[in-house]
Amino acid sequence: MSASPLIARTVPTLRRAIDNLRKRKATIALVPTMGALHDGHVSLVRLAKRRATRVVVSIFVNPTQFAPTEDFGAYPRTWKADIARLVAEEVDIVWHPGVAAMYPEGFATRIVPEGPALAGLEDRFRPHFFGGVATVVGKLFTQCRPDVAIFGEKDFQQLRVVMQMARDLDLGVKVIGSRTVRERDGLAMSSRNVYLSPEERQTATVLYRAMKESAARIRAGDSIAPAMGGGAEMIKAAGLALDYYEVRHAETLAPVTSRKDGPLRILVAARLGTTRLIDNIAV
């Protein structure tokens, strides 16, 4: 039977645990999560174990990245199942602070990212989001002091924002992106998939199919506008409301006009019923 991880709920407890690992010359990987763990998160943990000798997983549903109209209160919380998964993966520490531990009374400092955080993708629809992400991730990095941190590529703009922040602020953390884990029918694994009805769950696969078709057309030499227009029409015809469906430079997230503009990434966000889904693929 696997040993249970240390569950730290206060910064002093976490710091002591991290100090003990450092005294033993351990390298540390951090996997930040908001819980509701699925196989995609497990893949992040397994990559973390390959990149460091000890693994810390944080579980914190961060209120500062939710707008008042969003699903903070309803966001799935599955603590017992999450811990069971982490025990099975032999994680060393679970950092599970409460809101008061992360944002104590009088908390008055925020990180306000620019660059990829202002690419006109998620930030157009959730202008509060990346400030909340950058602030909480900055705190997690200083609390856990990891050598590496693992983030999923499904939240691609977020990954680029965190990479830029770690580099700009000299945080001493190597941020690594891990490929998106998908269901057999191509739907990207997400904690929010539980909100989908059986019919919506089937319909949602159109996002991956549309992106694959657009990417194939671009690789075959089609110009970007018709290739992307065809994919957007597929998504709309399936009944989803598009927030964006765009191809961008894969590193800077800058707009592109042709395949020659550099490595490309297709990114999509759409609403299906009450659920907002995001995804992306490389071209």
UniProtKB/TrEMBL annotation:
Pathway(s) annotated for this protein in UniProt: Cofactor biosynthesis; (R)-pantothenate biosynthesis; (R)-pantothenate from (R)-pantoate and beta-alanine: step 1/1
Transmembrane segments: none
This protein's GO CC annotations: cytosol
Zinc-finger found in the keyword field: no
Location of the protein in the cell: Cytoplasm
EC number: 6.3.2.1
Listed NCBIfam families: panC
Listed name of the protein: Pantothenate synthetase
Organism annotation: Bradyrhizobium vignae
